[in-house]
Every structure is written in structure tokens, then in C-alpha cells.
Amino acid sequence: MARFVMVLWGIWFNRNQLLHNKCGRDPGELVLWVAGLLEEFQGTNKSILSSISSASAVAKEGRHPPPLGYLKLNTDAVVPHGGNCFGIGAVIRDSEGKVVLALSKFVQGYFSVEVCEALALREGLSLAKQHGLSIGWAEVDVVNVTAGVNSSQLCRNAVCFVFDDISALCRDVGVSECKAISRCGNGVAHNLASLAVSSSQDHLWQGHCPFSLFYGC
């Protein structure tokens, strides 16, 4: 269809050239010229759209990829209102945004949101350790969790024991920093956690992740 439309345009353009400038192309040359223009346009347009799409995806997610050669862990927890379960999402990606490991885990039990988020981070770090991965840094979207992990002060509530485990796992897998980011920058991990709640099942992917989980980030 694109070629047909371009040929029609070419005929119209050639007609104007003959009418006004007394010059034009013969039919065979005209078809080849139009085909070349179309190929050039499609190639340029595809490149531009690809660049815009990549830039939009990064802006939409608000994510910051790790430096070349490093991995980054994102985790999240989804806690249904009034439920006695929650979902954990964890994704490990490289500097190009490619998924190395992705986890969606369903957990029975009632805990505060802070504890669920901390358990999600611990699960993601454990996943990295189990597969022998070195993680540059970890990201969650709850400030209280990163504050608890990075704090040197002693505390005595239940979540502190989880923080102790997280700190030990961070050392084991090489995490230099655990930081809080916006929800939109944590979209894939959130979608993985939501999947766990909706399916009531565990899922693990290596080297890829369902493309649908990247939507709505």
C-alpha cells in the first residue's frame, strides 16, 4: 500500500515537472526513484521512532540503568486490602535493561506494608545469591525500607530482623547502595508482585520476562 501511494505521488510529481519545468522521468526510472525514496523514508522513520520509543520508555519508568557490566535489582510488594496474603516482585537487569532474572512470588500471611516490602527486598537479594550474581545496587519504592537497611541504629521491632538479613545479603552479593525510587521507576517489579497476587502462584524467568509486564510502568 505504501509503495502504491508513493507511485501515485510520483506520477503526480512527475506530471507537474513535465507541465511546469518541461522535464521528467520515464516510467521505469520513475518507479525506481519512488522505491528508493520510500526505502529511505521508512529506514529513517524507523530509526527515529525507535529512538523516541526508547527515550519514552526510560522517561516513563523513571529508571536509571546501572553502568556497563553491572546488574541492578528492583523489588516491590503488593498487599491486597484486608487480605491475608501479598505478592513479591523482583527483577534483575543489566545496563541495557535486559532481564537476567525475574521473580513473581505469592506469600500467605498478614504483615504490615513495611514488612512486606522488606521481605520482597530480602527475597530479591536471596535470588541473586542463589544464582551467584553480583548486584551493583538495589532499588525499592518505600523510603522506610531503605532507611532501615542503611541505618546503623539498633532497633527492636520485628522488621529489624529482616533488615539484618538484608544487610548480610547485600554484603554477600556486593550491593553498594540500597535506594528509594518513585513507583513509576519500579513498574516491572510492581507488575510482577501484582501477578503473584492475581495468580496465587510463583513464577521465575531467566533471561527474559513477559513483555506484558513492562506495560503500565
Automatic annotation (TrEMBL):
This is RNase H type-1 domain-containing protein. GO terms for molecular function: nucleic acid binding; RNA-DNA hybrid ribonuclease activity. Residues 74-195 form the RNase H type-1 domain. InterPro entries: RNase_H-like_dom_plant, RNase_H-like_EbsB-rel, RNaseH-like_sf, RNaseH_domain, RNaseH_sf.
